[in-house]
Amino acid sequence: MNRRAAIAAGVLGVVSALTLLAPTTSAATAEPPTPSPTQVLIDAYGDSTTLGITCSDGHCAAQARNAVTYLQQALYEHDGERVRVTNYGVGGTMATQLRDGTGNRRAGPTAGLPWRERLGASHARIVLINYGINEVMQNQTPEQFYAAETTLVQTARALGKEPVLQTSNPMPDNRLNTRLAAMVAMTRRVAAEQQVPLVDQYAYVSSLPDWKTLMSDGAHPKPELYRLKAEQDYRVVEPLVRLLLDHTH
User: Fold this and answer.
1) What pLDDT band is residue 28 in, cutting at 50, 70 and 90?
2) Among the listed residues 54, 207, 219, the one whose alpha carbon sits nearest the alpha carbon of residue 130
3) What is the CATH number of the domain that holds 8?
4) Count of the separate structural domains present in the chain
5) 142-158 vs 174-194: helix axis angle to the nearest 10?
6) What domain range includes position 158?
7) What's the pLDDT tens digit per position in 124-147?
8) Distance (Å, whole) CA 103 – CA 174
9) Where is the signal peptide (predicted)?
């Protein structure tokens, strides 16, 4: 990386911090969907990278071309109307907030409830969980993150849901990315200990040549990268969907 690119990366890291700390409301404000007997519902929980924030010319906003939308499209092409994914991503939030019900309360009618109550009211069979970036920005410890994700997974399992953990996409700022790697290690640890599926987006994106060019700022992917992330999600989620659909016949 040349000096100009290095300076730009540092600036983008600061922009990312300001953006992530500003709560953003999920578009999922309707009543939770009720499935038909042969339909599989999937809830996607996470931060602004789940919601689908992309930045351009200093302006960051949620947009339709995000990983959850691309995942829904791929599942629809394979399984039709039998699968529905709902995006409950909220910008600026952490796993502890999802656990405690202290995230943005406007993001759906049950968003202000603690995790057990909120998930208990959901008809979803599969639950996607994507956090880590704001834990870095809010100076949480990896141990705090580990405890929160462990509770989220154990509670989901106790309620008969299939949790799927996702690691965060990497951050272009090397200092922040090193701290994020410690959070990612905790997500991997929880997945291994609790024996739940893992979509390791951090490892995948980091392996892409020139992945930093696919980022819109210091944390949020461009639509092209959201699409690639969705392909990784699909590889893990679709076999789970297939098992559930086969058991509905």
Assistant:
1) very low
2) 219
3) 3.40.50.1110
4) 1
5) 30
6) 3-246
7) 999 999 999 999 999 999 999 999
8) 28
9) 1-27
